[in-house]
Design brief:
Elements (H helix, E strand, L loop, with lengths): L2 H28 L18 E6 L8 H6 L2 E10 L3 E2 L3 H10 L3 E7 L6 H12 L9 E3 L11 H19 L4 E4 L1 H7 L10 E4 L19 E10 L3 E9 L11
Parallel strand pairs: 1-2, 2-4, 4-5, 5-6, 6-7, 7-8
Antiparallel strand pairs: 1-9, 2-3, 8-9
Helix pairs in contact: 4-5
InterPro entries: GH (IPR017853), Glyco_hydro_25 (IPR002053), Glyco_hydro_fam25_subgr (IPR018077)
Family: Belongs to the glycosyl hydrolase 25 family.
Keywords: Glycosidase, Hydrolase
Length: 250
């Protein structure tokens, strides 16, 4: 092969290499690049809505310190059965509202008393209004007095719920645990009410079958918590962050 032939061949090879490199660069440039990761990007988490529930058993409560402990709401025992009125209910409600806490009221239901009488006692105490959360009916083993017929018991509980809703214009919440719920709260109509579930020392609570498709609104996670300097032994509660926080505005 002579000089001119070799020169011509080298030119042709160079052009081919340049052409291939150009195509490869074009393909690489056409692939979209991921956005740069910034250390300043903040992953926002839904803040916890924490609460406590109290009664006269806690004694005097330092409500400013409860507020400082990042508590948002408090449920306060108003009544039990057909005659018991919690002696600290009124002062706890005032203290909660004066410190900007949402306040709710609950009734401890007993199986040995008429449902309407129990409902009327509760309604006469609570003075439901702005800053208050929906009322709660506390249903647990301690409220079972003697032998009961589960069907009759469920009918009485529904009577209480319907009566309170008709008088206050708001649907109550049911407080219970999964063992009691699966034994005594099997009527389908209970699923029309939000669930406040009690279960401690677990990552997620066990839901009674009646609420299996609905889940919980409030979870009582601990019965042995304390708020330093404010209160003694107290139940600690978590409001479900996926559900709207219900408080009467006006």
């Amino acid at each position: 092969m002579n000089y001119h032939s070799r020169t011509t061949s080298l030119v042709i090879i160079s052009l081919l290499i340049w052409s291939c490199s150009k195509k490869q660069a074009t393909v690489q440039e056409s692939v979209p690049k991921p956005p740069p990761v910034s250390d300043s990007v903040e992953v926002k988490k839904t803040p916890q809505i924490l609460g406590i529930d109290v009664s006269h058993f806690q004694g005097d409560v330092n409500w400013p310190k409860v507020k400082d402990a990042k508590i948002t709401f408090v449920y306060d025992k108003a009544s039990e059965g057909k005659s018991f009125k919690d002696p600290d209910y009124a002062q706890n409600k005032i203290g909660a509202h004066e410190n900007g806490l949402a306040h709710g009221s609950y009734h401890f239901f007993t199986s040995d008393a008429d449902a309407i009488e129990q409902a009327n006692l509760f309604i006469s105490i609570i003075d439901y209004g702005p800053g208050d959360m929906p009322p709660v009916l506390d249903l647990e083993q301690g409220g079972i007095k003697g032998e009961i017929n589960p069907t009759t018991f469920q009918s009485e509980v529904l009577t209480w719920l319907n009566h309170v809703e008709s008088k206050l214009g708001v649907k109550p919440i049911i407080y219970t645990n999964h063992v009691f719920g699966d034994r005594y709260l099997t009527h389908a109509n209970f699923s029309n009410y939000h669930l406040w579930i009690a279960e401690y020392g677990v990552e997620q609570p066990t839901i009674p079958k009646t609420w299996s498709d609905i889940g919980w609104l409030i979870w009582q996670r601990s019965e042995r918590g304390t708020i330093e300097g404010a209160i003694g032994q107290v139940d600690h509660d978590l409001y479900n962050p996926t559900k709207p926080f219900e408080v009467i505005k006006k």
